[in-house]
Amino acid sequence: MTNIAVTTWSLEQTAPTDLLPAATPEGDVRIVRSEVPSPEFSRFLYASVGGDIRWTDRLGWTYDQWREHLERPGVETWVAYDRGTPAGYVELEAQDDGVVEIVYFGLVPAFRGRRIGGHLLSYGAGRAWDLADRWPGLATTKRVWLHTCSKDGEHAMDNYQRRGFRLFDTKVEEEPEVATPGPWPGAYAA
Fold first, then answer.
1. Of 21, 138, 153, 179, which is the most exposed, with the fewest CB atoms less than 10 Å away?
2. Strand partners, 82
3. Angle of helix 63-70 versus helix 39-50 axis, rounded to 10
4. CA end-to-end span of the chain, whole Å?
């Protein structure tokens, strides 16, 4: 098996005023919280958004693993819809001491390049900053962070920085090269 070097960048915002919102895209684009934990829907989003950029860490999760994760306090999924069709999502996860991670963020390939991503990231970061308002008992958000890597889309880093995220760590690691899984085997075959 071949290994590849993967660079991972970690970025953060340390105050709500760091957020630099993107313009709202034209058309009927809505962002809605998926309030009912649904392993089927979350796995669909994960595989559809990350299938062409090698998101593989959750593909082997069982139904119960998905359910347990989604039912944790402070885990939220916000979905962007373009004319009623799921276009992408952002997953938030509360961590200790008022830290919220944007664990996953992205668009289904057919919806990229339509200015939905900047809007969804802005909205998701805003919901990270007010997460404690929806979850009694969670600490007020003091920091929002995320990571991206060299396997992600070519515009990912620029989008994060344009939304006010600042780089705080960079790592380069060797990892096995895996085939692009797609939302189902062969979906993104060239």
1. 179
2. 29, 85
3. 100
4. 21
**Burial class of residue 158 in the structure, from the number of CB atoms within 10 Å of its CB (0-12 exposed, 13-18 middle, 19+ buried):** exposed
Backbone conformation region of residue 97, classed left if phi is above 0, alpha if psi is from -120 to 50, else beta: left
Q: Determine the Cα–Cα distance for residues 146 and 124; give it in Å rounded to an integer.
A: 11
What pLDDT digit, counting tens, does each position of 128-174 carry?
999 999 999 999 999 999 999 998 888 899 999 999 999 999 999 99
Predicted TM-score (pTM) above 0.85: yes
The encoded tokens of residue 175 equal 């990892």
How far is 23 from 36, CA to CA, in rounded Å?
A: 29
How far does CA 50 lie from the centroid of its chain?
Answer: 10
Centroid of chain to Cα 74 = 15
CA distance 155 to 152: 8
Q: Can you read off the two tokens belonging to residue 190?
A: 């060239």
